Amino acid sequence: KARNRRDLAVDTLERGALIxxxxxxxxxxNVLSNRSGDRFEGPELQxxxxxxxxxxxxxxxxxxxxxxxxxANWRSSPFYEVTNSINSREPGYWVVNGRVGISGPxxxxxxxxxxxxxxxxxxxxxxxxxxxFGWILNVYGQPRTYGLSASFKL
Length: 154
What we know:
Distance between the termini: 33 Å
Strand order of the largest sheet: 1-2-3-4-5-8
Structural class: mainly beta
Radius of gyration: 22 Å
Mean pLDDT: 78
Number of strands: 8
Helix content: under 10%
Order of helices and strands: HEHEEEEEEE
């Protein structure tokens, strides 16, 4: 039975999402947030994380398939210190990644170009502030990276 292009596209698209919201009330009693009125990792929310991803696979010829995938991850404005110091608050940010490739028969091999942090987002993943010494340690997330990947099955 012949299938039209629309049916083929629907059959070859995978999508997903993960949304995690932890409110401040759930954090009460936590060793990291037991000081009266203090919150850890968020002004109103403990942490808000959203991840969206999609993968599209399309046959393009004799035993070859085109692979397209992307994912995006959002972080709310977390505080990275229990003292809620303004220096330890990171503005909300998105990180977007993508991949384009081809695969052989039965996915026995794959060759792909990938890119991570495609929007060149600058963000911190860790902060350690020691104000008595005038010291703030900031650890930043990965910059934009790209490359070529190859895999095969024996």
